[in-house]
Amino acid sequence: MVDYIDDTDFDAKVLKSDTINVVLFRATWAGSSNFAYLDLERAEKSFPQTAKAFYLDMDYSVKVPQTYSVNIYPTFLVFQNGKEVFRYPSWPAPIDILGWISDLKD
Q: What are the structural domains of the chain?
């Protein structure tokens, strides 16, 4: 399940986690963000136990997108050990999302 996060719990769930975290920054009014969310849901079903998926709605959270200079919807950020390790400012295929995780756990 792709979990919702916002400015209030981003640090606890993403930055202080020991898993690989894929975060989708989306805006529900942007059609490609909605398709990217569906693809993240599909990809997440094949995630190893060492990875989690989250989405952040940019209409309700301002601090985190500003902190990470996210201004394109959708944008994917991948975090490992509390640090951003990969950025994809577009809508990837589910296989690409799985590839990011595979590259990090190897």
A: 3-101 (3.40.30.10)
